[in-house]
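Teaching assistant here, posting this on the class forum so everyone can see the example we discussed in section. The complex has two components, and the goal was to see what a joint structure prediction looks like when all of them are supplied at once.
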Amino acid sequence: MNEILIFKSHQLFFGIFTSEVQNISSSNQGEVIGQALRFSSDDQTHHRRAVRLKGADEAPRTYLLEDTIGIYRVSDIMPLPKVISDLNCPVMGAAQIDDAIFGDSLILIVDHQKLIHA
Amino acid sequence: MTTSDTKVLPERKEILLDEETTPWVVFNIHSNFFAIDGVLVKEILPWIKPTMVPGLPPYFMGIIHTRGQLEGVADTAKILEINSTDPHELNRILMIRLGTMACGLYVEYVHDILDLRAGQLRSEVHPAKHAEFYLGEAEWDGKIISLLNGEAILEFLHKAGHE
């Protein structure tokens, strides 16, 4: 069972493994997650949480999340199809959670290493 | 069995297959009609709105969840650089697969499965762009349809990650 911190960015749900999170604060210092995920633009006024991610061989990085949903447990994370995973996007897979908040939406699991090296 | 139950079978006719036929899936995008080799088409899915994944080239629409796994979906119109229409629920996703390469292709309407003999294919085709994605032309329902090279499209999509 994996525990993920879910947030919303650009109308999409994203999850980060809580095992990679060092702390969550209300700081306004850090990199806007939407930009780190390679969306074209971000509205700075919506940021609510700063998430500091552990770095294995790098210094920890702090990302500003726009809309934090909560922490959920997921049992099955589906890998991206090869045609997409070859593209080096900062997502490593997706999950579905049986909760009215998400409906049929997929939760995209952020690939922490690709986020750092983006 | 009584004589009244006895049925006379129609005269048996011998069907001569002088040339092998290949199934082609006929579809349209806007006012353009296309067909793709049916051997590559593993499934024709109803329209499912793909979940966009950040960082993808513009011709990818995102991923869908089908039968317990994720599949990529690309916009055929954007690959061919032709006009398209906004997706709606009657549109389709053609799941095409060749070896380890697989991807969904978003198309507008699927019209027919057409059996074509080699002699019915015309090699001339004059697309404005991306000639490598076309194999030729054929006639269907009084229209000229472009035959797409599904293998070349799959290779293009899979090479996108290695450029």
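For the discussion questions: Chain B is about 10% helix and 45% strand. Chain B has a mean pLDDT of 87. Think about how each of these relates to the inputs above.
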